Amino acid sequence: MGKNTGGTHLSVMLANSLSKGGSKVAVVEVPGDPALQWIESAYEGTGFVQGQTDAFTIKYVTYFKQWSEHQLPQVIHGDFDYIVFDMGDREGYETLFLQSDYKILLGHGGVWHTEHFVKEIERHQLQTYGEGMTYCVTRCDEEERKLMEKRLHLKLIDIPFQTDPFRMSKESMALADRIMMR
Length: 182
Prior knowledge:
The protein is of the alpha/beta class and 182 residues long. The chain is built from 8 helices and 7 strands. It has helices at residues 7-20, 35-44, 72-76, 94-99, 111-126, 142-152, 170-173, 175-180; strands spanning 25-29, 55-58, 61-64, 82-86, 103-108, 133-138, 157-158. The strands form 2 sheets. It has a 4-stranded mixed beta sheet, covered by helices on one side. It has a 3-stranded parallel beta sheet with strand order 5-6-7. It is globular. The model has no long low-confidence stretch (mean pLDDT 82).
């Protein structure tokens, strides 16, 4: 939800967690911030070159950069068990978001971000989008998370800090199970 909440980082962590169980996973980045281009460059040790490739694979996960609607059939009809859409603030992608099997709303727990996140959750609850939603928060201490949970009458999943989403801790590896309640 919004810039700098950790959505791409969570997408990569979730994809890696799912792939460790043997699932074929795709991560699809909607147009906007070219985060996956930076990830590809960092992983391959190359300099940032805009538009080098449309997709790349790292550790059994295929990443589709700056996705466009004409690529959707390729992704959906591909041989993937899971498709993780990194939608940023979802602007222009609300329908795709609502059609997803697992809807994850991620917010930043920093003091100046919290009120915006709480308002977005309340909007979802009012519009009955909240059903089937998983609410996650990054960069939030336990006390602030509990205050938000009490105010909203729901559980927030705290996303563990993981510097490198390709070298994940046991706690981070359990992330997919926690989010998808498997």
